[in-house]
């Protein structure tokens, strides 16, 4: 029996949540297609680009600031251009989950390596990913003070967060005694030395005595805990399945799923042996993912907001070129409240209300004004991607009488920015007033030139563009 | 544009991610909070619902605390130098020690860093408390832990609120009670229910604040219109739309505070802006600025000198910008997460330490040295060779909370700490003359200062900006003066023949209609209560109505030149007249601060206005020249411009940090924080403009 098909609105929703928004053409192309087929295509990473280190990152002759800028722009470029944006969305999710801050470790190359793990393993086994992130790359080890965690002087930071934040959830399936024992199990898992941040196990610093963890007394070693919690112990594996799958749902659909949904998520993830792609496929094929609660459930994070703006306009994250047709998202994301590689702490960023403030709005407006300038600086241009050729129709050289009607103009703008299927009446009225006032403001030389610019700024500041 | 310079020093990370202790304790509270959030769906941030209540001006006894955060660990021994302890020279043996003659002497054996001359001048004036030996007993040498402890200031180390945040919790939901310059909110300004608002350094980054261009105004209005009604797209879309509208409104309120051009230097810029925000009387009680980096593990001499110069320049810029009427209601304090090691290292720097020194500055501060300078013999130092704290940092907070912020320090800090008694309460002054608290005029309307009214000869009142049109005696033909009510919700108009017309919330207390006058009425002033007013005759005769009392006049004196304008003191216990030759006549508790009488003027004086404190006034001449006396600050004049028409009246902004002139053709000239809201320049009224009020 054929499964459900996607409407235009379903397609727009799916592309916003699994990536950074689809173009009008993409949404049209997916309309009417079978949902499960589209989901399979979205989860197929075979076309994803390779993942070499960005230019300059790890180069001892390049300063850390320049390395960071390179890293930021590289990631935004992947978000803007990847044919498999779900890979970047999951990398963002894992960056927020295994939150590691460069403010403490000061090593962009190490963070890139960690980021690469999110990309390479982020849609596979959660157990494998956890191994990779916790002790094959030293980012978490440094961030959570495990290098100084040595026999005789245990540091509980990594041991606690591994259970509390990374796998089981707060006060789920462990006690303070388990934390104490785990800290001893993780002793000796550090880095080569202060200057060489490659992971290294220092046997001489490892506590080889018996430790009692989860009721079992033996000579535990840290990595064994991952296999225990996420593999051999059904109780804790189930807790982890519930904790992780609920968090994934919260970031892709909406926070606070009800008990029935949580139970379904837990079972789905557990039964897949914690396979992330299986979980995502089930989620994106579930009607609850398309319900109003989900469609209206999320505010775009600043990084999603910036990436969506770049993706739909085609403006690259990169250096100024002669035509000034690039954006520098790193100027804005911190002011919006989310600086990549600088999470507020190990528990990561939070959601929705967390992103709504005057300061964040001002940062968005600053970005929007800069983007409007970059997009229109050359006037009519064959470089416009997607549906941005509409800008030619409202260019200041076009007499007001020859421009599309206000209603048509609004639809063109919304389609270009990816919310053509859900323009609110309120927004439509506000934009109609704007267009009418701009066009009646006198001779074309006066301020009708500002129509293009204003439409871009207002699209980016509309509630429609700011929600996910 | 965002400022890339803010990148770099560690202290940003420290200030905003203070919860990464080895034990992970404080972070745990974050989790509890987010767990709470899980149960409460779609709760809007509290500030949105209450934004309408923003910008509530402060009462006269409410003090403002400005906090200067020195990130990275300020070397207290290099800031306030203990020359008198020979151990200082023994321990600072790598080229960092100051000789007594090199520093600015505070007391025998105590010197101030030589790059703090402005602070020294304030010290000499008795406005600087230096607290030595301040530290966090039981703290450690981690930037993160120490900064978190200083910000948190609570016995429960898992508390995820800061001391000023908990103070702000007690002040209600008005988001402008606490402000920090910058976009992220440091922990000390985060409360359980509320937190400070982060404001950008540049007005250009605050969409909605700059309404100079019509094309941008159309955009701003459209953003507001996004929230005209529900989007139908769910609570988050509605919340985002409202946030846009409220942010635009906030930008408009803040606009005047940004009108001051900002100097170079990170701290001076922030503190200049901070003073402008205080002047704007938006209701701010706590204002935070941050700078650094103080983490001088090497080259202390040069690097710390830069920080000290920045501090000196910043404090000077702050007080230069601060309207003098606020001087007794603003106190500034510094803090840093720790001091540095008494022994300098091989790199000529100093490593992380413990106790440091800090400053508390303001005119209500009891200047002097506080706290015991920690000993520096080997036996005096702790196991890490650091100073032993003599003053718990929380006693500094307690002193400020109890004495300056009218709060309960025990409740906020969770324990009681010593009162260091380095400051007196705000506002109250023992000075003679007016006495009592200094009244600060409330802001117009909802806090915007851009609003004023012009009165023309025919009697018509023209209202601009936030000033609403409340009516006018159109057609009387001999209108002479106007005066606003204290809250500017009404005004009186007086005619040359002595008739009085009252509008809005201005009550009528009588007039001279039908009375034969020796000289026409030329001026008018209202009492502070709004319950009365005076009329001034051209010959210096005074007429009192309502609760206005007579304090004397020049009606019986032979004047060299006619009287042209009057102003009342803030208490209502006196008034000044000014004559066209610049002569000043002071009565009652009005004090003489200087005049142009006897000087040759290019152009006659036409108007006067007092400062909010009554300790000064401005005189304005017809050519736009301004003469500022007492605590009146000069904000500019048109004295060097060739005006088409003579200036006839002046109005001072509610903050006192600016003024408008109006010419008789209705042209407006705005100075200081006065904004422009329109003029009659294009269509001068017949008979000319005769009066102005804001």
Topology of helices and strands:
The complex is a heterodimer of chains A (about 475) and B (about 700).
Chain A: H1 8-18, H2 24-30, H3 35-43, H4 64-81, H5 85-97, H6 102-105, H7 108-121, H8 126-135, H9 139-143, H10 157-167, H11 176-185, E1 189-191, E2 199-201, E3 211-213, E4 216-218, H12 222-232, H13 234-252, H14 259-271, H15 276-284, H16 292-295, H17 302-313, E5 316-317, E6 326-327, H18 333-336, H19 358-376, H20 390-393, H21 406-417, H22 425-439, H23 450-461, H24 463-466
Parallel strand pairs in A: 5-6
Antiparallel strand pairs in A: 1-2, 3-4
Chain B: H1 11-16, H2 25-39, H3 46-50, E1 64-70, H4 76-79, E2 80-81, H5 86-91, E3 104-107, E4 110-112, H6 117-124, E5 128-135, H7 143-152, H8 163-169, E6 178-181, E7 197-199, H9 214-225, H10 235-254, H11 266-279, E8 286-291, H12 300-321, E9 330-336, E10 356-361, E11 368-370, E12 391-392, H13 393-404, H14 409-413, E13 451-456, E14 461-465, E15 479-484, E16 490-495, E17 500-504, E18 521-526, E19 532-537, E20 542-546, E21 563-568, E22 574-579, E23 584-588, E24 605-610, E25 616-621, E26 626-630, E27 647-652, E28 658-663, E29 668-672, E30 689-693
Parallel strand pairs in B: 1-8, 1-9, 5-11, 5-12, 6-7, 6-8
Antiparallel strand pairs in B: 2-4, 3-4, 5-10, 9-10, 13-14, 13-30, 15-16, 16-17, 18-19, 19-20, 21-22, 22-23, 24-25, 25-26, 27-28, 28-29
Helix pairs in contact in B: 9-10, 11-12
Overview of the structural elements:
The complex is a heterodimer of chains A (468) and B (694). Chain A is mainly alpha-helical. Chain A has a two-stranded antiparallel ribbon with strand order 1-2. A two-stranded antiparallel sheet of chain A has the order 3-4. In chain A, strand 1 (189-191) and strand 2 (199-201) form a beta hairpin. Chain A has 24 helices and six strands. Chain A starts with 7 loop residues before the first helix and ends with a helix. The longest helix of chain A is centred in the middle third of the chain and has 19 residues, at 234-252. Chain B is an alpha+beta fold and 694 residues long. Helix content of chain B is 21%, strand content 22%. Chain B is built from 14 helices and 30 strands. In chain B, the strands form eight sheets. In chain B, strands 1, 5, 6, 7, 8, 9, 10, 11 and 12 form a nine-stranded mixed sheet that branches. In chain B, strands 2-4-3 form a three-stranded antiparallel sheet. In chain B, strand 25 (616-621) and strand 26 (626-630) form a beta hairpin. In chain B, helix 9 (214-225) runs antiparallel to helix 10 (235-254) and helix 11 packs parallel to helix 12. The longest helix of chain B has 22 residues, at 300-321. The radius of gyration of chain B is 28 Å and the shape is elongated. Residues 1-54 and 428-449 of chain B have low confidence and may be disordered.
